[in-house]
Design brief:
Number of strands: 4
Radius of gyration: 26 Å
Largest sheet: 4 strands, mixed
Helix content: 55-70%
Distance between the termini: 52 Å
Strand content: 5-15%
Length: about 350
């Protein structure tokens, strides 16, 4: 439904690019790197879906699986859809968990069904046997929320402690915030932790739903306060640098910006935000033809360009100042051959 009209609009080259443009498809990868990717990727993906992915462990309970039989059709559909999409990413070295983001709703349905069936088991009155174990399942549900509650308390103490230390010492520290924001984060996290722990020994429908809402609120707070603050503080702000490059007219005709190799995706993204067009990938012969009549402006992730050029700008491709990568991106000008 999507691929056929996409092919009619972009042609064969566009379809090939969709499947090969974002990742290297294993070219230049060593056996060790491929094995590392295959082993680590499932765990990284599981971590990206935390804390909710931990609820998938409920399926190890036979009573939960038995209760899921009444929901076998939606469970099978979403699980199979996610697993097939997972293979297309897992088997490609260099792929990232974000390539599967559009399938996260399927994972959410599987997790929700596990939680729903586990709660149904926990409500059963009888106990005994492997096929009906409401006490054990009830303990599993309480362990989940209790762990998140203690995590909320710990996060409050750590963030406030780091922020106070950074303010007193007047140093930059990871995850340290301004004192007012740190105190607000800590206070709200402690309140959420207390509400989560209200279900200490039993699971009630209203009470446990309240706890889950507080779990979601805590992780939203955790991301939007210390984590986003940390990313903003340590960001290289390549977006502002690119905006300045456009405003200062260092590249007179932005739409002529080209790339000899696959353009770094961050630069292509920023270029599209500014000008609503992507940077085309061209061949060396095409650049030679273009420079017969005009100056050619290009972007590259290497300073070793096959043609003589004038350097316009050079930025680190590293998104944050604490990263270890030394990759850079350059913008250059190849003079018009007619003007030589």
């Amino acid at each position: 439904a999507w691929l056929v009209p996409y092919y009619l609009i972009t042609g064969k080259a566009g379809v090939v690019h969709i499947f090969t443009g974002d990742v290297a498809m294993g070219s230049g990868e060593t056996v060790a790197r491929v094995v590392k990717h295959l082993v680590s990727f499932p765990f990284i993906l599981f971590g990206c879906l935390l804390p909710w992915s931990a609820l998938l462990l409920l399926f190890f309970r036979g009573s939960v699986r038995q209760n899921c039989r009444r929901l076998s059709q939606p469970l099978a559909f979403t699980a199979i859809a996610f697993c097939f999409a997972f293979l297309t990413v897992w088997l490609v070295p260099g792929a990232r968990p974000r390539f599967l983001v559009n399938m996260f709703p399927c994972a959410a349905i599987c997790i929700g069904l596990a939680l729903d069936c586990a709660y149904a088991v926990a409500e059963q009155e009888k106990n005994g046997g492997q096929e009906s174990d409401p006490i054990a399942v009830r303990k599993d549900l309480l362990r989940f929320t209790h762990f998140i509650a203690w995590l909320a308390f710990l996060a409050a103490l750590v963030i406030i402690g780091l922020s106070v230390y950074a303010a007193v010492r007047k140093v930059e520290m990871r995850l340290a915030m301004s004192l007012p924001r740190a105190i607000l984060f800590g206070a709200v996290s402690i309140v959420l932790g207390v509400v989560i722990r209200r279900n200490r020994h039993k699971v009630t429908r209203h009470g446990y739903a309240t706890s889950l809402c507080c779990v979601a609120a805590f992780f939203g707070l955790l991301y939007n306060f210390p984590i986003v603050d940390d990313m903003n503080r340590w960001s290289q702000r390549t977006d502002l640098a690119f905006q300045e490059l456009c405003q200062t007219q260092l590249i007179p005709n932005h739409r002529s910006l080209v790339s000899l190799e696959e353009c770094p995706h961050l630069i292509n993204y920023l270029h599209f935000l500014q000008l609503h067009v992507t940077i085309p990938k061209v061949t060396l012969a095409e650049i030679q033809e273009m420079r017969k009549t005009n100056d050619v402006y290009f972007v590259s992730d290497s300073e070793k360009f096959p043609l003589e050029y004038t350097l316009i700008a050079k930025w680190p491709l590293r998104r944050y100042r604490y990263g270890k990568e030394d990759n850079t991106v350059i913008f250059g000008k190849i003079p018009c051959a007619g003007g030589l």
